Amino acid sequence: MASGAQLSVTDQRLSTRHPVDLPLIGEHRRLGDVMMHVINISTTGFMVKGEVALQRGERITIRLQHIGRIEAFLVWSDGARAGFQFERILRGDDFLMMIKSLQPNPRLHRTR
Description:
With 112 residues, the protein is mainly β. 10% of the residues lie in helices and 43% in strands. The chain has a six-stranded antiparallel β-sheet.
């Protein structure tokens, strides 16, 4: 029997990552509130700076502007950073609204 998270979104490294500086609180079933510092985000996941007290495959719930509550699974961790994958791909229009609110500097916005 397989253990760990059964992730429905495949590894999509082609997703554009947007640099952000976003402190947030994640909710974990065992640890309760977990402080995290998101440094980049895409429609499929995000990366945090700093050590996380989670094991690969563990789930955390976060709240994002324009997206709402969403679960993510720890995919990798190297001690100084960690990568999470969302339970589902974020809708493009909601994601762009969120990025615009997180990156007030227009030079950081992707041009179409």
